[in-house]
User: What shape does this take?
Amino acid sequence: MATAYTELFTGTAIAEAYRKFRPTCPKEVIQRITEFLNCKNPGPWDLAIDVGCGAGQSTRILSEHFETVIGCDVSRDQLQEAKKTETLRNVRYDFSMEL
Assistant: This one.
């Protein structure tokens, strides 16, 4: 069943524009996340799940810090865009309507 969110990000042209024009997550944000994790559970870290990953901008950044990163989104078009942008050995993308 489609929701307003899934309809908003549907279509290959929209997904491509989202990938091109969405600002990248600042490295400082990832640094804060990894500092927090180090306090709770010093690395190395096995798994990160990027919920609502869109075209995978943050998923790729997280891949530098985790053994495996799974990007999940409700938009198949966004996931297709993420998959064609870059292939990293420790990243995979999954479709989920349960987000």
